[in-house]
Amino acid sequence: MPVVTVRALEGISAEKKEELMERITVVMKEVLGKNPEATHVIIEEIAAENWGIRGKTVATIRSGK
Fold this sequence. Notes:
The protein has 2 helices and 4 strands. Helix 1 links the parallel strand 1 and strand 2. The strands form 2 sheets. The chain has a two-stranded parallel ribbon.
């Protein structure tokens, strides 16, 4: 039972999450031969205030400060 976890900034649409899950499942089957029925994909959305790059939060960077 493979489990794939994707961490991304919040704001991904439900449609994009579905597409991502479908594509990851297909790749797991094609590359590793994993059964799609047993493949789990978890998307963890992180708030921009909780994600840092270059010593600043993404929220701060996005605000232009």
